């Protein structure tokens, strides 16, 4: 039976680190890190994510600035808000909750956030720095996944890592982080030939496809470490249930370690967002 990687417990440790950074900044600079969260529209899932992020921010001692905009908010209005937050010295981190309404140019908004305040790590400057192995603000979910992997493995060097999913949010930055750890990295996706066979070669398997239960036990190398990024809502006997991209029950009989859904990557993502906020504040104040 696989070791279950407790994302909630690891996240609490990361939040403690973030809270310690907040206290250090208060002591040395008499300043509290400030996180501005922007939500456009009334998407139910996004509202839940934002509430959780704000709650955790307050617990860590981070100042929270919340901006809730109507779904029909214009591009110009959102552009102006981002510029205002960029110019505000009390705001050290800016998070625009994705996805945005279709009439908003998402790439333009991401690029308009100052790189040093881009706590999501999505700005092209941060993406470029990560790809070159330079210091940057790193996307929160891959950062959380790496912390989970380091919890299981003292050394990732030389391990064969397969990432299923090639998104800009998880797949690509995850690959860059694992290359920095000296892994041999493969990104598999919907056009990969014999994807099952590719996954079977992985010492580390990271699933980030948004496809419920896609990865079955016979896709997994015995004793592999499996990180399940997927969060999918399904109906089971009339009840809403969250499951991952991995068949947890089957995979846990084969893998050496596995992250659950829920309670795995999700808490780590929020914790790393707050850690990024404290790091951004420290960089701006020192």
Automatic annotation (TrEMBL):
Pathway: One-carbon metabolism; tetrahydrofolate interconversion
Limits of the Tetrahydrofolate dehydrogenase/cyclohydrolase catalytic domain: 5-120
GO cellular component, one term: cytosol
All copies of domain Tetrahydrofolate dehydrogenase/cyclohydrolase NAD(P)-binding, residue ranges: 139-284
Domain of life of the organism encoding this protein: Bacteria
Residues that bind NADP(+): 165-167, 231
Annotated protein name in UniProt: Bifunctional protein FolD
Keywords, sorted A to Z: Amino-acid biosynthesis, Histidine biosynthesis, Hydrolase, Methionine biosynthesis, Multifunctional enzyme, NADP, One-carbon metabolism, Oxidoreductase, Purine biosynthesis
Subunit structure: Homodimer.
Enzyme Commission no: 1.5.1.5, 3.5.4.9
Lineage of source species: Bacteria, Pseudomonadati, Pseudomonadota, Gammaproteobacteria, Oceanospirillales
Similarity comment text for this entry: Belongs to the tetrahydrofolate dehydrogenase/cyclohydrolase family.
